[in-house]
Amino acid sequence: MRVPSRKLAALPCLAVGAYAIAVRPRLVRWGATDEEVAQPYPGADIVPNGNRAATMAVTIEAPPRQVWPWLAQMGYDRAGWYSWDRLDNGGRPSADRIHPQWQEINLGDRLTAWSPGGPVSAWEVAALEPGRFLGLRGLSDLRGRQLDPAGPLPRVYFHGLWGFLLKELPGDRTRLVVSGYQATRPRWLQAVVDFFFYPPVHWAMQTRQFANIKRLAELQL
Distance between CA atoms of 187 and 210, rounded to whole angstroms? Predict the structure, then answer.
């Protein structure tokens, strides 16, 4: 029995509608409270005219002073990213202990990101409040080449801030809130990326990172 072509044509629309209504809203605020989604987030000035990115959060049963060292040593050529290592660390396992030699971090430092062709990109440390906030800026063209935020930008570029906010909770616990800002250009490209691609990819990588940082920080107790 042949399915009418009109019904076949309607299936993608139904899938997009289901994603927009039931899936995407959960992905872009996974684990976060209404207050965490609505309240101002640090780093808005770092990405001019940027849109607020997804806001995700996790509670860690350890104080901020035990969570921060895991963030400070991130980077492909350092401790890794604690997410899916085959995808963002070249298959090399992320560190499972604190490395004192990687604890020094300063504004302007570049934390290398891995890509299949080699470590060709990096996150710039654009905001830093040790023990409280780490803001990593990514600015690149369509080919993944790093751009200077002070220089002229091409017509197509990706500009974003990936932020890690540590909030101390009673009982020596930490609320880790990850959010940021995005300003992809042209704007139609940002709309497509933000709607279809960014939420599921970011969710898959960020929840994995949450799980590993939480596990590692709590093991120190």
Answer: 30
Which regions of the chain does DSSP assign to beta strands (E)?
Answer: 51-52, 56-60, 110-113, 121-129, 133-141, 157-169, 173-182
Residues contacting 217, CB < 8 A, separation 6+: 60, 62, 66, 67, 70, 174
Tell me the per-residue pLDDT of 64-87, one tens digit each, with 9 for 90 and over: 999 999 999 999 999 999 999 999
Say if CB 183 and CB 50 are below 8 A apart: yes
Domains annotated on the chain, with CATH: 30-219 (3.30.530.20)
pLDDT tens digit string along 7-35?
Answer: 556 677 777 788 888 899 999 999 999 99
Dist. CA 160–CA 214, nearest whole Å: 25
* pTM over cut 0.85: yes
